[in-house]
What does this fold into?
Amino acid sequence: MKTCGDRPVPTASRIIKYKTCLIHFSSSFITSVECSARLPELNRHRSCAALLAKRFPFSSVMASYHKPDEKTLQGLRDIANKLRINSVKATCASNSGHPTTCCSAAELMSVLFFHTMRYKATDPRNQCNDRFVLSKGHAAPILYAAWAEAGFVKEADLVNLRKLDSDLEGHPTPKLEFVDVATGSLGQGLGAACGMAYTGKHFDKSSYRVYCMLGDGECSEGAVWEAMAFGSHYNLDNLVAIIDANRLGQSEAAPLKHDMDVYRKRCEAFGWNTYVVDGHDVEELCKALWQAQQVKGKPTMILAKTFKGRGLKGIENMENWHGKPMPKDRAEEAIKDLEALIQNPNKTICPELPKEDTAPADLSPISLPSPPNYKIGDKVATRKAYGVALAKLGQSSQRVVALDADMKNSTFSEMFHKAFPERFVECFIAEQNMVSVAIGCATRDRTVAFASTFAAFLSRAYDHIRMAAVSESNINLAGSHCGVSIGEDGPSQMALEDIAMFRAIPTCTVFYPSDGVSAERSVELAANTKGICFIRITRPELKVIYDPDEKFEVGVAKVVRQSDSDKVTVIGAGVTLHEALAAADQLASEGKSSSWWPGRELHHKRCPGPLFIGCLHRRDKSDLFSPIWTFDSNWAS
Ligand SMILES: Cc1ncc(C[n+]2csc(CCOP(=O)(O)OP(=O)(O)O)c2C)c(N)n1
It folds into this structure.
């Protein structure tokens, strides 16, 4: 069977022309046409065509496709081989890396970067540029090679791959201007790409498009399919994903091997438009990627049948070559072979420039438009104050967006939803994807993203949160129903590990507010704090203990009570601060008032240990020797 490329048939009326064809169609476009002599099937096809026309009115009638001229196509083939050569050279120089992973993707990268995507090669992070996420991050050398071909990276630097003092790390990170999100933990790129595409379509309302490349082995990750469901649910027609189906994973073949039809059916079942292509045929790729640009209402998946190690004699399509650089002599031979395929080594192809329809990000600080509106002694749950503050911040800045995982009526992010439905992203019960989507939304400072759910369920997204830090992301995560204070719901709903979990994340600031005032200020501080922010919020109502004008700072604990005769320091935060205060009151009533107990509220920045030492300010030397008691509702201390 000939797979897509020869003649995709965009409209039902055109289908009828192919009288003797057996038709295979994706839900919005015909993807492959196989001629057969089965005339009796004609009538069935006719009715099928009529049915298609009825079901898919094709809001966009496809503009006509112009095949690139032969010179351009050869130029793209030449670039693909140059990318291969540079990937082999770089991995040889570092004596590590994944040359075979790069080689299967060479034509895909060439066509994407030098035919399809629109971007300013001199300004990779320009807000108008198309975005590219290399979800199979171990193919980093070919990404670096593509940016060298585009002129942004010096070609001579490519051999510094994986060196300690080089930003060309083994897996891409945003230390490089052309990388928006770090990848390398497989399965996470598509969720981030969804966040970028959602932002482009619904927040920026701009024409930039988002491309994401995945490995076939990677597609065993459930997170990929969470992202697939999200992409089609939100009709992200500005999103194109590509599976580099090179058959092989790391230790053996990927489960579907080269069964492109099963890939197609799965992607279509998830609501995506699909094209099955020969991933080494630049012309087919140009056409499929062009077609994808015409599709309305759905994201597109390009299913590219490729061979791992393509172009490397004796290695192509062989097992046991994953993650292995080629021995020097074999590399030299392979480079010669590849050079021989290049017809015009000096030809460069400049990418098309993007449409200038995205405003630069507004980086001004974001403040609550009014102070928290509670009186000391009022009772309010910090989760509710979170919702109030988020809605207030939404008034202050268009960049504030909120995400939730079907918990908005528990986390109170529904208050933001009610006020700004157009800036609320329901991610449904898919916490890993919610974190990745938030990361995507926050790239290039397009949004200030707050994502909320029960704190307990953020633990299943831990690897995504870890990668958010590697991505230098500024996302804010709010976890409600923390600690044992949620009571009757039982341990499955209680976040007990969350403080330990977030404290271990580099760049993370943990806010654990104790009342409505500090909760609102935590949200305000988080919006302006770089790195990951975690706001730990509680279910039960707590007494307001701070004046609405109380000032809070990251990394500085509050002294709630103190006296000159204090004997011990008592530390609490959130709900436990109130327990500590009750204990202090009880001791006082028992005549032990000589030992006044200061309770302290914590906003701790990368606390080094369970005692939050970084936050405590001893008042004098004698304080150094006073005992410290902590009250905690987690398993971190
Ligand atoms: C979550 C995760 N699990 C495991 C790995 C280790 N690993 C790196 S590459 C790889 C195989 C990937 O295969 P595939 O997605 O098909 O990519 P290919 O190299 O074949 O293009 C594995 C298992 C990883 N990086 N991330």
Observations:
- Residues 98, 101, 104, 136, 138, 184-187, 215-218, 244, 246, 248-250, 254, 308, 322 surround thiamine diphosphate (CB under 6 Å).
- The longest strand covers residues 239-245.
